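BUG: 3D viewer hangs when loading the predicted structure for this chain

Environment: internal workstation, default settings.
Expected: structure renders.
Actual: progress bar stalls at 90%.

Input used:
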Amino acid sequence: MADKVQKLKPQEFVNTLGKFLADDETHNVLIRGYFDMPKLKPSLRVIKNTKEMHKGVIVEGGMNKNKLESMLGRALNIPNFYLDSLEWLNIGNGTNIVSTKWNQSVHFTYGDDCDFAFFFPIQEEVVEPKYTEILVEKLKNSRAKKNILLTSNDWTKNPEVLYKYMDKIVSLDLEDYSNKYKEELKNIKTNIDDKPLPY
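Structure tokens produced before the viewer hung:
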């Protein structure tokens, strides 16, 4: 069980995630961060570049499928990207994926012989306890060697309900990376009524 978020600069984030994926001690990793695409791209790149990650399952969160496919396609640099629950898709470097939904076939195991299950986006699933229970059941039934959960619109403490199931929690810290992200972070703080950010 992990209860502390490691805030990491971009290169530290890539290096640390790569180590987690390659070791035998870490099974469940939660990835947080205030900006969706900047954390999605390096996360998927690390998965593709880690030699232990050959087969995986994308666990689709509660996002419109077209939007989700568009985001994943941009992050993977694959035009016309489509998720398929039956056909394996090569996403590069010999890494192949299929997909499943976070709230379907919840009581059945999945991900047999898979190196990873990538849960994205985790957002509404941690807002209401009944949704969280479903997500946790899905997580527990994964037979993948690694479960990687990536949050979206991560401006609240809601994802903390998952901490007790995680071995590691990391956050991509872009606050000092550029003026663009510094400005966007100010806007986020304004949008949440200047409450303290969750981490």
